[in-house]
Specification:
Strand content: under 5%
Oligomer: single chain
Helix content: over 70%
Number of helices: 8
Shape: rod-shaped
Order of helices and strands: HHHHHHHH
Number of domains: 1
Radius of gyration: 35 Å
Low-confidence stretches: none
Protein backbone atom coordinates (compact mmCIF):
# COMPACT_ATOMS: atom_id res chain seq x y z
CA UNK A 1 0.00 0.00 0.00
CA UNK A 2 2.85 2.38 0.87
CA UNK A 3 4.60 1.61 -2.45
CA UNK A 4 1.33 2.32 -4.26
CA UNK A 5 0.97 5.79 -2.70
CA UNK A 6 4.66 6.55 -3.34
CA UNK A 7 4.28 5.62 -7.01
CA UNK A 8 1.33 8.02 -7.39
CA UNK A 9 3.27 10.85 -5.77
CA UNK A 10 6.29 10.26 -8.01
CA UNK A 11 4.05 10.23 -11.10
CA UNK A 12 2.41 13.52 -10.15
CA UNK A 13 5.81 15.14 -9.58
CA UNK A 14 7.23 13.85 -12.85
CA UNK A 15 4.22 15.26 -14.73
CA UNK A 16 4.71 18.65 -13.01
CA UNK A 17 1.34 18.57 -11.35
CA UNK A 18 2.51 20.19 -8.10
CA UNK A 19 -0.91 21.39 -6.99
CA UNK A 20 -2.44 17.98 -7.36
CA UNK A 21 0.59 16.51 -5.57
CA UNK A 22 0.10 18.78 -2.57
CA UNK A 23 -3.62 17.98 -2.37
CA UNK A 24 -2.87 14.30 -2.64
CA UNK A 25 -0.15 14.48 0.03
CA UNK A 26 -2.50 16.29 2.43
CA UNK A 27 -5.20 13.73 1.77
CA UNK A 28 -2.74 10.95 2.42
CA UNK A 29 -1.74 12.54 5.74
CA UNK A 30 -5.39 12.84 6.73
CA UNK A 31 -5.97 9.17 5.91
CA UNK A 32 -2.95 8.18 8.00
CA UNK A 33 -4.18 10.29 10.95
CA UNK A 34 -7.65 8.78 10.69
CA UNK A 35 -6.11 5.32 10.61
CA UNK A 36 -4.07 6.07 13.74
CA UNK A 37 -7.13 7.44 15.56
CA UNK A 38 -9.15 4.37 14.64
CA UNK A 39 -6.33 2.12 15.86
CA UNK A 40 -6.12 4.06 19.13
CA UNK A 41 -9.88 3.84 19.57
CA UNK A 42 -9.84 0.08 19.02
CA UNK A 43 -6.94 -0.25 21.45
CA UNK A 44 -8.77 1.85 24.07
CA UNK A 45 -11.91 -0.21 23.56
CA UNK A 46 -9.95 -3.44 24.00
CA UNK A 47 -8.25 -2.10 27.13
CA UNK A 48 -11.57 -0.90 28.56
CA UNK A 49 -13.15 -4.27 27.81
CA UNK A 50 -10.24 -6.03 29.52
CA UNK A 51 -10.58 -3.85 32.64
CA UNK A 52 -14.34 -4.43 32.71
CA UNK A 53 -13.82 -8.19 32.65
CA UNK A 54 -11.22 -7.90 35.45
CA UNK A 55 -13.59 -5.73 37.49
CA UNK A 56 -16.32 -8.35 37.03
CA UNK A 57 -14.02 -11.09 38.38
CA UNK A 58 -13.02 -9.03 41.43
CA UNK A 59 -16.61 -8.04 42.21
CA UNK A 60 -17.71 -11.67 42.00
CA UNK A 61 -14.91 -12.61 44.40
CA UNK A 62 -15.82 -9.79 46.79
CA UNK A 63 -19.44 -10.90 46.74
CA UNK A 64 -18.45 -14.52 47.45
CA UNK A 65 -16.26 -13.39 50.39
CA UNK A 66 -19.14 -11.40 51.86
CA UNK A 67 -21.55 -14.31 51.45
CA UNK A 68 -19.14 -16.58 53.34
CA UNK A 69 -18.83 -13.91 56.03
CA UNK A 70 -22.62 -13.87 56.44
CA UNK A 71 -22.51 -17.58 57.31
CA UNK A 72 -19.62 -16.87 59.68
CA UNK A 73 -21.58 -14.10 61.44
CA UNK A 74 -24.52 -16.44 61.96
CA UNK A 75 -22.24 -19.08 63.47
CA UNK A 76 -20.53 -16.51 65.71
CA UNK A 77 -23.90 -15.17 66.91
CA UNK A 78 -25.07 -18.69 67.71
CA UNK A 79 -21.90 -19.46 69.70
CA UNK A 80 -22.12 -16.13 71.55
CA UNK A 81 -25.79 -16.69 72.42
CA UNK A 82 -24.94 -20.15 73.77
CA UNK A 83 -22.32 -18.61 76.08
CA UNK A 84 -24.78 -15.90 77.18
CA UNK A 85 -27.42 -18.52 78.02
CA UNK A 86 -24.99 -20.76 79.90
CA UNK A 87 -23.41 -17.92 81.87
CA UNK A 88 -26.82 -16.44 82.69
CA UNK A 89 -27.89 -19.83 84.04
CA UNK A 90 -24.72 -19.98 86.14
CA UNK A 91 -25.31 -16.52 87.61
CA UNK A 92 -28.78 -17.64 88.72
CA UNK A 93 -27.65 -20.97 90.15
CA UNK A 94 -24.55 -19.66 91.92
CA UNK A 95 -26.75 -18.42 94.80
CA UNK A 96 -28.25 -21.87 95.35
CA UNK A 97 -26.72 -24.01 98.10
CA UNK A 98 -24.11 -26.49 96.89
CA UNK A 99 -24.39 -29.51 99.19
CA UNK A 100 -21.68 -31.75 97.71
CA UNK A 101 -18.59 -31.82 95.55
CA UNK A 102 -20.74 -33.21 92.73
CA UNK A 103 -23.13 -30.29 92.87
CA UNK A 104 -20.23 -27.83 92.99
CA UNK A 105 -18.55 -29.54 90.05
CA UNK A 106 -21.78 -29.52 88.00
CA UNK A 107 -22.26 -25.83 88.72
CA UNK A 108 -18.71 -24.95 87.67
CA UNK A 109 -19.20 -26.85 84.39
CA UNK A 110 -22.05 -24.54 83.34
CA UNK A 111 -20.22 -21.31 82.37
CA UNK A 112 -18.30 -21.04 79.10
CA UNK A 113 -15.10 -19.06 78.66
CA UNK A 114 -14.92 -18.68 74.90
CA UNK A 115 -13.45 -15.63 73.19
CA UNK A 116 -15.00 -14.86 69.81
CA UNK A 117 -12.67 -13.22 67.31
CA UNK A 118 -13.44 -11.36 64.08
CA UNK A 119 -11.83 -13.36 61.27
CA UNK A 120 -13.51 -12.55 57.97
CA UNK A 121 -12.75 -13.45 54.36
CA UNK A 122 -10.85 -10.33 53.23
CA UNK A 123 -8.36 -11.82 50.76
CA UNK A 124 -9.96 -10.17 47.73
CA UNK A 125 -10.08 -6.71 49.30
CA UNK A 126 -6.48 -7.05 50.57
CA UNK A 127 -5.38 -8.05 47.06
CA UNK A 128 -7.13 -5.02 45.53
CA UNK A 129 -5.39 -2.70 47.99
CA UNK A 130 -1.91 -4.27 47.84
CA UNK A 131 -1.92 -4.44 44.01
CA UNK A 132 -3.19 -0.87 43.63
CA UNK A 133 -6.24 -2.10 41.72
CA UNK A 134 -8.90 -0.61 43.98
CA UNK A 135 -9.75 1.90 41.23
CA UNK A 136 -10.81 -0.99 39.03
CA UNK A 137 -14.20 -0.66 40.75
CA UNK A 138 -15.77 1.77 38.28
CA UNK A 139 -18.69 2.88 40.47
CA UNK A 140 -17.47 5.61 42.88
CA UNK A 141 -20.39 4.91 45.24
CA UNK A 142 -19.64 1.18 45.39
CA UNK A 143 -15.90 1.78 45.83
CA UNK A 144 -16.51 4.09 48.81
CA UNK A 145 -18.96 1.57 50.32
CA UNK A 146 -16.41 -1.27 50.02
CA UNK A 147 -13.56 0.77 51.53
CA UNK A 148 -15.73 2.08 54.39
CA UNK A 149 -16.97 -1.43 55.21
CA UNK A 150 -13.51 -2.98 55.47
CA UNK A 151 -12.20 0.00 57.46
CA UNK A 152 -15.01 -0.59 59.93
CA UNK A 153 -14.09 -4.27 60.06
CA UNK A 154 -10.52 -3.34 60.99
CA UNK A 155 -11.70 -1.06 63.80
CA UNK A 156 -14.10 -3.68 65.20
CA UNK A 157 -11.46 -6.38 64.89
CA UNK A 158 -9.12 -4.41 67.16
CA UNK A 159 -11.95 -3.64 69.60
CA UNK A 160 -12.89 -7.33 69.90
CA UNK A 161 -9.25 -8.31 70.32
CA UNK A 162 -8.73 -5.81 73.15
CA UNK A 163 -11.95 -6.89 74.90
CA UNK A 164 -10.90 -10.53 74.68
CA UNK A 165 -7.44 -9.78 76.04
CA UNK A 166 -9.01 -7.96 78.98
CA UNK A 167 -11.39 -10.83 79.84
CA UNK A 168 -8.69 -13.47 79.42
CA UNK A 169 -6.40 -11.49 81.71
CA UNK A 170 -9.14 -11.44 84.35
CA UNK A 171 -9.54 -15.19 83.98
CA UNK A 172 -5.78 -15.79 84.23
CA UNK A 173 -5.56 -13.70 87.40
CA UNK A 174 -8.48 -15.57 88.95
CA UNK A 175 -7.06 -19.01 88.12
CA UNK A 176 -3.67 -17.93 89.47
CA UNK A 177 -5.20 -16.67 92.74
CA UNK A 178 -7.63 -19.58 93.15
CA UNK A 179 -6.23 -22.74 91.55
CA UNK A 180 -8.39 -25.85 91.47
CA UNK A 181 -11.79 -24.23 90.94
CA UNK A 182 -12.03 -23.99 87.16
CA UNK A 183 -11.29 -27.12 85.18
CA UNK A 184 -11.41 -26.53 81.44
CA UNK A 185 -9.91 -27.64 78.12
CA UNK A 186 -10.08 -26.28 74.60
CA UNK A 187 -12.31 -29.27 73.77
CA UNK A 188 -15.08 -29.48 76.40
CA UNK A 189 -16.33 -32.82 75.01
CA UNK A 190 -13.04 -34.41 76.15
CA UNK A 191 -13.39 -33.03 79.69
CA UNK A 192 -15.08 -36.15 81.07
CA UNK A 193 -12.23 -38.35 79.83
CA UNK A 194 -9.52 -36.14 81.33
CA UNK A 195 -10.96 -35.33 84.75
CA UNK A 196 -11.27 -37.72 87.66
CA UNK A 197 -12.83 -37.44 91.12
CA UNK A 198 -9.52 -37.00 92.90
CA UNK A 199 -9.03 -33.71 91.06
CA UNK A 200 -11.99 -32.21 92.96
CA UNK A 201 -11.75 -31.30 96.64
CA UNK A 202 -14.45 -30.07 98.99
CA UNK A 203 -12.41 -27.02 99.96
CA UNK A 204 -12.34 -25.96 96.30
CA UNK A 205 -16.10 -25.40 96.32
CA UNK A 206 -16.85 -24.18 99.85
CA UNK A 207 -16.70 -20.55 98.69
CA UNK A 208 -19.77 -21.16 96.49
CA UNK A 209 -21.97 -21.08 99.60
CA UNK A 210 -20.52 -17.75 100.76
CA UNK A 211 -21.68 -14.85 98.52
CA UNK A 212 -19.72 -12.38 100.65
CA UNK A 213 -16.50 -14.32 100.02
CA UNK A 214 -14.01 -12.46 97.76
CA UNK A 215 -13.48 -15.55 95.62
CA UNK A 216 -17.25 -15.86 95.07
CA UNK A 217 -17.47 -12.20 94.06
CA UNK A 218 -14.41 -12.41 91.79
CA UNK A 219 -15.87 -15.41 89.95
CA UNK A 220 -19.25 -13.71 89.63
CA UNK A 221 -17.55 -10.61 88.17
CA UNK A 222 -15.63 -12.66 85.59
CA UNK A 223 -18.74 -14.54 84.44
CA UNK A 224 -20.55 -11.22 84.12
CA UNK A 225 -17.70 -9.83 82.00
CA UNK A 226 -17.82 -12.84 79.65
CA UNK A 227 -21.61 -12.61 79.44
CA UNK A 228 -21.67 -8.87 78.78
CA UNK A 229 -18.79 -9.16 76.34
CA UNK A 230 -20.69 -11.63 74.20
CA UNK A 231 -23.88 -9.58 74.37
CA UNK A 232 -21.89 -6.73 72.82
CA UNK A 233 -20.38 -9.13 70.27
CA UNK A 234 -23.86 -10.34 69.24
CA UNK A 235 -24.94 -6.75 68.51
CA UNK A 236 -21.71 -6.11 66.63
CA UNK A 237 -21.96 -9.30 64.53
CA UNK A 238 -25.60 -8.57 63.70
CA UNK A 239 -24.67 -5.06 62.56
CA UNK A 240 -21.81 -6.34 60.41
CA UNK A 241 -24.06 -9.03 58.94
CA UNK A 242 -26.66 -6.41 57.99
CA UNK A 243 -24.06 -4.14 56.38
CA UNK A 244 -22.49 -7.11 54.63
CA UNK A 245 -25.83 -8.08 53.11
CA UNK A 246 -26.38 -4.51 51.95
CA UNK A 247 -22.96 -4.49 50.29
CA UNK A 248 -23.73 -7.84 48.62
CA UNK A 249 -26.88 -6.24 47.20
CA UNK A 250 -24.91 -3.23 45.89
CA UNK A 251 -22.37 -5.50 44.20
CA UNK A 252 -25.19 -7.60 42.75
CA UNK A 253 -26.71 -4.47 41.18
CA UNK A 254 -23.35 -3.52 39.70
CA UNK A 255 -23.08 -7.04 38.23
CA UNK A 256 -26.65 -6.75 36.92
CA UNK A 257 -27.66 -9.81 38.93
CA UNK A 258 -30.78 -8.18 40.32
Amino acid sequence: MIKFFRRIRQQLLSEGKTGKYLKYAIGEIVLVVIGILIALQINNWNESNKLKKEEFVYLKRLKLDLEKDTVYYNQSIARANLLIDRNTTFLKKIYEEQRSIEEGKDLMNIPLWDSEYLTIQDNTFSELVSSGKLNIISSPILKVAVVDFYRKIEVQENYIKEFNEYSRELMANYVSAHPGTIKQTRKPEELAEILNTSMFRMEDFQFLNSPSNSQFQALEDIVLVYKNKHEIFVELFQELKSESKHLISQIGQELNEE
